[in-house]
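Recap quiz, item 2
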Amino acid sequence: MNLTELENGQKAVIVKIEGDRRYLSRITSIGLNVGCKVEMLQNVKKKPLLIYGRDTMIALNKEESNRIQVEVTTA
Amino acid sequence: MTENRTIALLGQPNSGKSSIFNSLTGMHQHVGNWPGKTVEKKEGTFVHNDVTYTIADLPGSYALSANSDEEIVTRDYIVKEDVDMVCILADASQLERSLYMLADFAGLKTPAMLVLTMGDVAKVKGKVVDTKALSAKLGIEVCEVIAFDKKTFEPFYAAVENTIKNGSCLQADALYSYFTSSDIASEYAAALAMAEKMEDGRYTKEWIAAKILEEDELIVRRVKIKELGDIPSSEKTTLAVSDARFTWIGKLLEGCVENEKKPSELLTKFDKRAIAPGSGTAISIVMMIVALLGSMLVAIPFMGLGGATPSILNPVVDAICNGLGVSAEIAHFIKATLVTSLGWVISMVGFIFGMSFVFGILEEVGYMARVSYVFDRSMSKIGLQGKAIMPMIMGFGCTMGSTAGSKVIDSYGQRILTIAVAWAIPCGATFVVIPTLANAFFGGGGGMLVMLFIFLIMFLHVLVTAKIFGRKLNPVENRTGIIMELPPYHKPRWGFIFKNSLMRMWDVFKKAFSIEVIVCIIFFFLSYSSAGIESSILYKIGTAIEPVSRFFGMGWETFMSFFAAMISKEAVLGVLSAIFANSGSIVDSTTGLAATSDNVAQIVAASISKAEALAFIIAVTFNIPCLQAVVSTYNETHSAKWTAKIGGYYILTALILSAVVYHVAALFM
């Protein structure tokens, strides 16, 4: 599923990232690559997504986060 | 003769890079711009064991990619500049993620060392890093420092000396083995073959090959120039390169990091509220008010001192001049220029100190990043970072406050943009001067309407200014959605921030005083007159161009006041008083040496038309706020060019606004 569909508190693993070179470079250098475990901290209307991954709280704009596919992990 | 060495400081945002730089160099800093780029250049020096080190604080970026001006500067410096060594910083509390910079550096032949920061935060999280084991695996010196505490720097100095002595470079063969063993092995081999033809002194073919696979713009351009063929890269290889780096980091940290505790609750109770839709906005508004009041509180003693400077020093100047037999004219000149500037600069640095201190704490604690998140949507619409809202709101107090506060914006271009936009926010002085005038002309109710009108113009002005300056400073095609780390909350280091704010205050004082004296001298001669106003140059210019200024809605009297208001907005009433009530010379009224007639507003109201008054009110409100604002903008941007551009833009727009308001109002009034 899409990262933007994760609900607050749900944990998932990134399985696919799409986008242009610049976006891929920005998103991976902040620590989000395929296989990275993330937790959705806050997903509300009109605000960027707030996720937790690699010991870091990261704010992501929703428009581009559509390009990140995740698989929910049970835990 | 002492030895000279050069060091480059490389680290991700929030890695404590600036704190280390400040701790190391103290007052020995030079801030400027990178040639041809709107990026701030920070260099400093420090001496240790008789060796002088020049250290460059490179713009923070997450990797050695070349996606923004800031990143290009950092990248170019690292791969082209002939430095003795590079210090790579990493946050010990988020080691896996922050070592990405190190992984991207791997393959460059410049001697390097790794400095771990935030050890205190890591400890709270239950993380212990074995620096010795890490050092053995990497083949370079690894040390740990508390960035704001110079007492912890001994291992750092030792590591610097060893690195230079041994020329130790990062061992990264393991990293490349992940490329050859992954499913991009064939692409990597092809890239490597190309890279062999591009290898030179500073980088290895492996580093270039990785950049080719990442479709790095600068390297791809070189491949094309050399006509080495089609690059073997795609979305897949770009991702695979970063995967290899994280795998390498993971292996590196195995056995080097101990996780003693389970991660505690991810969001603290405060954070839950600070980022939530409703309460987040409420909290940040409260924080803004607290910040404004807090910085005012810190600034008040200075402003008191600055305000009292003329009354303390002027009698002294008189006495000395009398004693030396110097004429009263010269004593007057000294009072109007030197003493006035000194008083202004003292108030100004008070403001800068207060703002640096309060914003320094909010930034250091980690709260500013939350503001960025909360206001991202609204501010990014006009091309600004979310946290730009903070300095802009400070503008309602004082424009100097907003320019000094813009320091929290990490991109230099966006910082200038924030300053340019913040000038459109009417400052505290406006709210003193304008209602007095507006009430005299339009009565209580009309005065209220005028204030509403001012706020309406303010919103439009902010939008238009952001658009005009944003074209160059934050081009639309470069605007990207927010991808930002929200650092964990830290305890503020009061002493460290206090010291930094003091240093900044002193730095500004030195630069600002001379500029203000020069401007005051020029203004003195322009408005000097031996008898009445009529013999001053300003009067002659004012009356000569009256046909032109009339078009903008102002007669020579109001146009002169408009001009004087660029020096000091508080002076508007005084200058009007000098002109209409003959209460003193223009110089004395602008510099506060002459008293203002009590009923100046009423006298003016009897002399000029309502349409002209409204045009004048708008022109003064949206003109250059004051000399202090100009000087502090110059200090913050260290660019005469941008300061002049912003200043010129505001004069022009004030005149346009004035003309439009006058001609429209004249139809009804």
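Chain B touches chain A through 42 residues (CB under 8 Å).
The mean pLDDT of chain B is 88.
End of item.
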